[in-house]
Design goal:
The protein has about 100 residues and is α+β, with helices and mostly antiparallel strands. About 15% of the residues lie in helices and about 30% in strands. The protein has helices spanning about 35-45, 50-55, and strands at about 5-15, 25-30, 55, 60, 65-70, 70-75, 90-95. It has a 5-stranded mixed beta sheet with strand order 2-1-7-5-6, with no helix packed on it. A hairpin with a 2-residue loop joins strand 3 (about 55) and strand 4 (about 60). The termini are far apart.
C-alpha cells in the first residue's frame, strides 16, 4: 500500500551577490520531510555558480553565509538538517565584502 506523500511549498529569497547567479525569489515544492540540506542540493543543481558562493567545502557553509528560516538563522536551529515546513520563507545571504 502506497501512502501518498504530501508536498510542501517554500519560498526562497536571495540577496546581494547571490542574485547574480539565481532568481531573487522562487517557490519550490518538496516532500514534507525535506531539510535545508535538500534545498541547497536542489538550488546548487539548478543554478550554476551557486555552490561556490555558498559552500567552502562539501557540506561546509562559507563563513558568514547566513541562511534564515522564517527569520531565524539555521545555525541556531539544526543547521543543514533544519526541517522545512509548508509556507516557510528561506532567506539566503552571502558573505558581505568590503569594509
Amino acid at each position: 500500500m502506497n501512502i501518498p506523500q504530501n508536498d510542501i511549498t517554500i519560498t526562497v529569497k536571495s540577496f546581494a551577490t547571490l542574485r547574480e547567479v539565481m532568481d531573487a525569489q522562487i517557490h519550490i515544492d518538496f516532500p514534507e520531510n525535506a531539510t535545508i540540506r535538500l534545498l541547497l542540493a536542489e538550488l546548487t543543481g539548478r543554478y550554476e555558480g551557486l555552490n561556490k558562493l555558498i559552500f567552502a567545502a562539501p557540506e561546509t557553509l562559507r563563513d558568514y553565509v547566513n541562511i534564515l528560516k522564517n527569520g531565524r538563522n539555521i545555525h541556531f536551529l539544526a543547521g543543514l538538517d533544519t526541517p522545512l515546513d509548508d509556507g516557510d520563507i528561506i532567506a539566503l545571504f552571502p558573505p558581505v565584502a568590503g569594509g
